[in-house]
Amino acid sequence: MSERSRNIASVAFIAVMAVALILITSTRPATVDRVEQIGTRIKCPVCQGESIANSPSQMAEDMMDLVAERVSAGVPDQEIVDELLGSYTGAVLLDPPASGATLVLWLTPLAVMVLGIAVILWWRRHPGSGEAGEPASPGRSRTRLAIGGVVLVLAFASIVVVAANSLQDRPAAAAGAAAIDEQDLSEVSNETMEAVIAANADDPQVNGMRLALAERYFDAGDYRSAFPHYLVVAEDPNATDAQAITSLVRLGWMAYAGNGEVETATRLIDEALAIDSESSVARYVRARVVWCGTGDTQQAIETFDDLLADPDVATETRAQIEADLELARGGRECP
Amino acid sequence: MPMTGRVLRWTGLAVVGVTVVLAVVLASRFGSDPGLVDSPLIGQPAPEFTLAGLDGSEGTSLADLRGDIVVVNFFASWCLECRDEHDDLVAASESFADQDVTFVQVAYQEEAAESLEYLGEAGASETTRYLADPGSRTAIAYGVFGIPETFFIDPEGTVVGKIIGEADALILGATIDSIRSGGQPGQKVTGDTQQRPDP
Fold this sequence. Notes:
The complex is a heterodimer of chains A (335) and B (199).
Chain A: H1 3-26, H2 31-41, H3 58-72, H4 77-88, H5 103-125, H6 138-167, H7 176-180, H8 190-199, H9 207-219, H10 223-235, H11 241-259, H12 262-275, H13 280-294, H14 297-309, H15 315-329
Helix pairs in contact in A: 2-3, 8-9, 9-10, 10-11, 11-12, 11-13, 12-13, 13-14, 14-15
Chain B: H1 2-28, E1 50-51, E2 60-61, E3 69-75, H2 80-95, E4 101-107, H3 112-122, E5 128-131, H4 137-141, E6 149-153, E7 159-164, H5 169-180, E8 186-189
Parallel strand pairs in B: 3-4, 4-5, 7-8
Antiparallel strand pairs in B: 1-2, 3-6, 6-7
Helix pairs in contact in B: 2-5
């Protein structure tokens, strides 16, 4: 074969190969291939560094099914990937995007390669450099030692930081009832408190929230909602004395104010006084129940006087007692 | 040439330094949990779904719940954290039931019969909708990495909050309170999540 023929044959062979390559690369991959291709780009969100195409996990299988469904529906590849990115962010891309913070990952190898080429070129133009150096002086050795030391210290410090970050636990779950006492309840809705109380019904720590909620209902005149909470605290053997007294006194007042049951009211308040006979709130409310329920003004006046003589009575309660005492002494009906 | 030698040595040191820094930066990512990335759904329209009840009952469509705050929780019987938060979800669901708040619990990678059996033991709430998610389509649309995960959707249909890990009644209620007052509570991580154990 002449040289000309060989050249023609070579050119023809290259042309055929080029056309074949163009055809292969331009032909749309089969559906199954496309699914596989997209699957290899997507990281399985519940696995360690595996693509959904290679992971045996249920989640990966489900995601592959989704990809297959989208491919069958004729959705373009990038749209399918974007759909998953819309739910999972770039965390599901095996190849990080060449943009933003991950750009450095793509550029670093390139930069290192350019640097390497530059060093080789420099070396070739200056053969023998760096080899014919004179013996290192003690000063230069110290400098090298210092630089090496700094690099080591930096590396060690970085490793310590990384280790500390890795060991950092996730934030502990809010500890339900244990967190209740520390919570500022002023911005917590009644529904939230009801939910917390219902979910921690057997936990004595919830009594504080239960009483706070009951007081809200009581202040709003919603005795029906307040009643069950006061009752639970009053019957809870783990409730503190103060909680039990508050609950019994409130129950007593509601029995009188809500249903006109004077006897029940005084019995409940007497239970509170059995816990602490000096309880000023219990004594005051009992006096009011007797005054308002039976018209026994004299007994009320005596109790009011006693309470006003007690220096431990809170200023707010004292003002109320003084107002009631004035009315009682004037022979007026209880308000 | 001493000058060239120095350049080479400094170049070598620079390469070593950059390599160390790069290795440390990359290594630092090994310990991090990809499931803790901020959900791209926060502030976005919630992915729509129409799912049948676990008992095969009529489907629930998210679009039909527009106007309510919707709490979407992904759970399964094999998830310990889900069991821990169950009572709180029930309590919150019932507490907010008449406040235009709807709780939806979607079974995650589990047969409906297994979920129903679990709910039978743990006690289902009458105010919560328990839904099946065949093929995990809804879980994928919500970008679920592990369970429990709980999403909060405001009355306009925007995802405004997400809890990763166990939710208690206080967090659920506080998040709902925040949404009711026009806030966007965002994402909170309260604890671990679980993947489906190998069969």
